[in-house]
Structure formats: structure tokens, C-alpha cells
Amino acid sequence: MKEPVPSTKPTFLGASGPKLSVRQIAVVGVMTAVTCVLAPFSVPIGPVPISLTNFAIYMSLYVLGMKEGTLSYLIYLLMGLVGIPVFSGFTSGPEKLFGPTGGYLIGFIPMAVLAGVVIDRFYGAKRKMAACAACIGGMAAGTAICYILGTAWLAYQANLGWKAAMFAGVVPFIPGDLGKIAVAALAGPKIRGRLVQAGLRAGE
């Protein structure tokens, strides 16, 4: 009786947990790099700058799915915390987490989870318009959670009233964030479809 031949396919994330193939690790790395490139470019308009961080996360969720997309952001966050200048304005370090925008950096995590769950659920559905609307709603809801956490920390850290914090950290960003969500909802499925065709993602 022959003994079973052990698999030689490299996998990661532990023996008993979900595993990532080398190909998946590579795509996560690419999207982390995309976030590192886009996020530092920002427009300072007050204590909270306009940046492309959330757009990079939206696209990562389409390309990678919820679990790997969230993992990609966590890797990006860790890189910034250890001193690599990948945060808005090419900044870095743990002090960024305790500054005015720290709540938004943390808020991006539940944003990625919620938006990613919705995108994973509705991407590829037969009713394209309804699926697109659901994905837009998921990204908007996740962004609202990020707004709440970010504004709460901004109000505390900068000693602002809730209304002042809203006008500093939410109101100016709504039009741009809606635009980013719309672009991601249009471009994300196309990029994900190309990756499926190229064999870089499993078929839906």
C-alpha cells in the first residue's frame, strides 16, 4: 500500500486555518503596493486631508475579496506604523495613529469588512444593476462607519464639538468619496473579471 504523497503546493496562514497560495500572496502584495503608492498623495484642507486611501481599499476589495482585501489594508497599516512613509502626506509612525486622523485609519478596517462582505455577496449576480447598487450601498455604509469612528476620535483628540468635527472630517469629503465609490463600482468588476480570465482569481 502506497503512502500518500504530501502536497508540495506552498500555502500560508497556518496548518489548520484558511490558506493562501503563492499566487494569492502575490496579488495581495500587489494591491498592498497599490495602496502604498496611492495613499500618501493627499490634499491638506484641514486636520483631515483628502486622500486616496479609501479608494485603494475599495479596489482591493473587488480585486481580492473581503478577507484578502482587509489583510492587504492591515499590511499597509503595519508598514506605516513601523516607519515606512505610506500614510497621507508621506508620513508614518505610531504617532499618526494618535493624531487627528487616527480614527479614520482604524475606521478603514470595519469599512473594509462590511463593504467586502457585501461585494463578495453580490459580485457576479445575474441582476447586474441590483448587484451594483448593493455594492455601492455596502461601500457607502462602510464609509459611514469609518466617518463615525474617525469623527469621534477627531473630536476627542482635537477637543472639538461634534458639529465642528463633522464639518472638519466628514462634510467636505462626502462628494469625493461618493465619486470614488462610483468609480470603484464601475471599474472593480471589470478588473476582477480580467483576473478571473487570467487565472489569478477563482471563478465566481
- Strand order in the sheet with the most strands: 1-2
Helix content: 55-70%
DSSP, total strands: 2
| Structural shape | globular
CATH class: Mainly Alpha
Number of domains: 1
- The proportion of strand residues reads under 5%
Please identify, by name, the CATH architecture.
Orthogonal Bundle
H and E string: HEEHHHHHHH
Radius of gyration: 18 Å
Low-confidence stretches: 4-16
Q: How far apart lie the N and C ends?
A: 38 Å
**Could you please say which CATH topology applies here?**
Arp2/3 complex 21 kDa subunit ARPC3
Quick overview of this protein structure:
This protein has 204 residues and is an all-alpha fold. Helices cover 65% and strands 2% of the residues. The N and C termini lie far apart (38 Å).
Model description:
With 204 residues, the protein is an all-alpha fold. It has a single domain, classed as Arp2/3 complex 21 kDa subunit ARPC3. It is 65% helix and 2% strand. A two-stranded antiparallel sheet has the order 1-2.
Descriptive key words:
204 residues; mainly alpha; Arp2/3 complex 21 kDa subunit ARPC3; two-stranded antiparallel ribbon
Write the layout of secondary structure elements.
Layout: H1 22-38, E1 42-43, E2 50-51, H2 53-64, H3 66-81, H4 94-97, H5 102-122, H6 128-157, H7 162-169, H8 174-197
Antiparallel strand pairs: 1-2
Helix pairs in contact: 1-2, 1-3, 2-3, 2-5, 2-8, 3-5, 5-6, 6-7, 6-8
